[in-house]
Amino acid sequence: MPTPRRIAVLLFEGVEELDFAGPWEVLSAWAHQWPEDAIEVFTLGLGAGTIRCAKGLRVVADHTRDTAPPFELLVFPGGRGTRPLLEDPELIAWVQQLAGHGVTLASVCTGALVFAKAGLLDGKPATTHHGSLTRLASLGRNIEVRPEARFVDAGAILTAAGVSAGIDLALHLVVRMHSIERAREVRRYIQYDPAPPV
Q1: Domain of 120: which CATH number?
Q2: Does the reported pTM lie above 0.90?
Q3: Which residue range(s) make up the domain with 12?
Q4: How many CB atoms lie within 10 A of CB 58?
Q5: For the chain, what is the domain count?
Q6: Cβ 152 vs Cβ 167: under 8 Å
Q7: What tens digit of pLDDT does each residue of 24-78 get?
Q8: What is the pLDDT of residue 2?
Q9: Which terminus of the chain, N or C, has fewer Cβ atoms within 10 Å?
Q10: For residue 152, which phi and psi values (nearest 5 degrees)?
Q11: Closest-CA residue to 43 (of 85, 88, 79, 77)
């Protein structure tokens, strides 16, 4: 059995539920339905214990930063809980360290604000929730804000717009890590075929 390629999905107080659950559904469906691809997905908490999400859902992460195995991709969701993280030097340093060690970083919604505060989006294209585009630009230097993009792939750093855009980003990650054919199979399996009634 090949060594698993590990993906961590970050959880923290005030995280927006669909920001992490959407990518989780895509990536864990891939891992479970196609075990031959050797993908492992787990949730990663900033600390131990129960986490209360933005809309009240309570969850418990699989690992903390101290117990997590090495991973090659971190999904960093958004939500109101990102605001305190912007003022957390230890968290910012951890994100910078991950980037420095070659971990691919993918944000959903206002998770991009943390990447900007860490200096990881300077001179790069990026997006976030439409209500935070101005703040995104203010947190870095020469960030090329793309307000109409569902997601932006800037190589080692990827950013997605609000909430449901994280599902599109996760499917794109399947393309990057495997193939467009596999991503199409995952999309069909989870029956993701958006056609909003309003």
Answers
A1: 3.40.50.880
A2: yes
A3: 5-189
A4: 8
A5: 1
A6: no
A7: 999 999 999 999 999 999 999 999 999 999 999 999 999 999 999 999 999 999 9
A8: 81
A9: C
A10: -130, 125
A11: 77
